[in-house]
From TrEMBL:
Molecular-function annotations in GO: monoatomic cation transmembrane transporter activity
Protein name listed in UniProt: TrkA family potassium uptake protein
Organism the protein comes from: Paenibacillus dendrobii
Residue ranges constituting the RCK N-terminal domain according to the UniProt record: 3-119
InterPro entries from the UniProt entry: NAD(P)-bd_dom_sf, RCK_C, RCK_C_sf, RCK_N, Trk_Ktr_HKT_K-transport
C-alpha cells in the first residue's frame, strides 16, 4: 500500500510540530517555507524540505503538489499568503486541504474557498485548557461538535476495582468508555469485565452534558467516601 503523502506549507511552531508528528506516525512529508534557516533545520527530519514561495503556482507544480494526498497550510502571520496558498492547493487538485486560521474572519474566508478543514490552534488549545482547569479529573479534551466530545479522565477512588459492567456508563449516563490507559499500555475497546483502577485513564466519548454528569457524580461519590 502506498504511504500517504502530506505537504506542509509554513514550518513555524505549528507547522513544524505537525510535520514532525506525521513523520513519527510513518507518513511522508514535504515541508515548504520561505526561510532558508528553517528549511535547513527541518530537512534532516522530513522526507523532503524545500525553500519556496507557496503562492507561486509554477513552483508548486514543479514540486508535484497535485500528487499529494493532503496539503496543510500552516502559515501563521500572513493571511493573504495563507489564502493564496490554499487556493492553489485546491486548484492543483490536492485531495484534502487543511488550513490554519488566525482569526474567525480568516477561517470564514478559508471555508468559502472550499478548504476541507479549518484549524484554530490557539482557540482550540484555549478551550482544552479551560476544560482541564475547571474539571478536576479531566486530563485532555477534544471537541467533536458543540454537543459531543472525547475526554481523558483519571479514574476516581470511587470506581476503583469496579468492572465496566458495574459502572455501566452507557446505560446510566449515556456516554461510553472506549479505551483505558494503564501503566503505559492502552486497552482499546475494553470488555464489560475489565476492571478500573485508581490512576487508570479513561477515554470517554459522549455528549458534553452526559460526560459532565458522569464526572460530577463519580467525583462527588469519591469525595464523600461512599
Amino acid at each position: 500500500m502506498k504511504t500517504q503523502q502530506f505537504v506542509v506549507i509554513g514550518l513555524g511552531r505549528f507547522g513544524s510540530s505537525l510535520a514532525l508528528e506525521l513523520i513519527d506516525l510513518g507518513y511522508e512529508v514535504l515541508g515548504i517555507d520561505k526561510n532558508e534557516e528553517v528549511v535547513s533545520n527541518m530537512s534532516e527530519y522530513l522526507t523532503h524540505a524545500v525553500v519556496a514561495d507557496a503562492t507561486d503556482e509554477e513552483v508548486l507544480k514543479s514540486l508535484g503538489i497535485r500528487n499529494f494526498d493532503c496539503g496543510i497550510v500552516a502559515i501563521g502571520d500572513d493571511i493573504q499568503m495563507s489564502i493564496l496558498a490554499a487556493i492553489l492547493l485546491k486548484d492543483l487538485g490536492v485531495r484534502t486541504v487543511v488550513a490554519k486560521a488566525i482569526s474567525i474572519l480568516h477561517g470564514r474566508a478559508l471555508g468559502k474557498l472550499g478548504v476541507d478543514r479549518v484549524i484554530f490552534p490557539e482557540r482550540d488549545m484555549g478551550i482544552r485548557v479551560a476544560h482541564q482547569l475547571v474539571t478536576p479529573n479531566l486530563l485532555d479534551y477534544i471537541e467533536l461538535s458543540k454537543e459531543y466530545s472525547i475526554v481523558e479522565m483519571t479514574v476516581p477512588e470511587s470506581l476503583n476495582g469496579k468492572t465496566l459492567s458495574e459502572v455501566n456508563t452507557r446505560a446510566k449516563f449515556g456516554c461510553s468508555i472506549v479505551a483505558l490507559h494503564r501503566e503505559g499500555k492502552i486497552i482499546v475497546a475494553p470488555t464489560a469485565m475489565d476492571q478500573l483502577h485508581s490512576g487508570d485513564i479513561m477515554v470517554i466519548i459522549g455528549s458534553n452534558a452526559n460526560i459532565d454528569q458522569f464526572e460530577s457524580e463519580a467525583v462527588n461519590v469519591s469525595k464523600s467516601g461512599k
